[in-house]
Amino acid sequence: MISKRIGIVEEIIDKSENIDDIRVNINGNIQKAYNYPKMSGEVNVGDEVILNTTAVELSLGTGGYHFVISNLNNIESSFTPGGHIMKLRYTPFQVKVDSVEEQESKYHDLIEGFKSLDNMPVVVGTLHSMLTPFVASFKRNNPNKKLVYIMTDGAALPIYLSKNVESLKNKKLIDATITIGNAFGGDYECINIYTALITAKEVLNADAVFVSMGPGIAGTGTKYGFTGIEQGPILDAVKKLNGNPIAIPRISFADKRERHKGISHHSITVLDDIVNVKVNIPITKYGDDSLDRIKEQIKSNKLDSKHNIVYINNDRTKEDLEFFNLKVRSMGRNYDQDKEFFQAASTAAYYLMEVCYDRGKDY
What we know:
The chain has 12 helices and 19 strands. The protein has 363 residues and is α/β, with parallel strands linked by helices.
């Protein structure tokens, strides 16, 4: 189940209060590792550390790094005061967080008194790489609107692993983050998607919310065996709370796997079989025959009879990214190599502007 090795810290490439990018010597081989100092303590060059080497030894793309389990030269640590909710429960790494909805929280009564999301737009993606193009287009055109990011536990659990989130927060393009389930490290911690959405509305006064997992995704090539299937229940939750559910379809013409060409089988499965409510699906008006394939997929799977398909003009995605000096990459491909993928996420932001914000109302 788990492979562990002892290594010596050779170099610290980058260091912060949340995550350290380090190089470790394992039996004479210098390899990359990450350390979460809040969990496993501070590290210094020369320290002897216990490493989880499982993913690297399996040559995995998702989670494919070594992670420090413990620093043998700095073993002891103490927790910060406040909070009684545990994440990573009943594991050696269970962590205590100050959850928004717990009884001792100053926000408890706000959560308890919640009535409705009042049609607040909630954009739900399946891959973490959808976050940056959406945020770039949204904030360039709506700099004064408050955007909240909810990170699920479908992939990476510590939000600290995301360089995207770090960059977007440093540029003040994300106003607040919430981590749910066993994900942790957000500005606010919540137990599930329902209380996270309520927190975005009642505590943070969000104008829009983006929901997706953190870095990484698990897939098996089977119809239902992928973590992005969580998009369906999340969209259901948005509708249940009287929000405006907006789904980003996973679209690519660069992926060599036929099942991901055009609208990915992941998105078709979610939108055809999993989600139980009618949702809004923005589709980019691509300038070539790519749109013909997408329309055929929509028609053959009867998505247009189940959901609200809205075709949006959007040729500004790359311009929006460059405006904030943001780089994007998904499945190893950059914008020019897989532009339709990033446009799909950006187009959801233009959907908000065209449909939600141009009608003289906040949502």
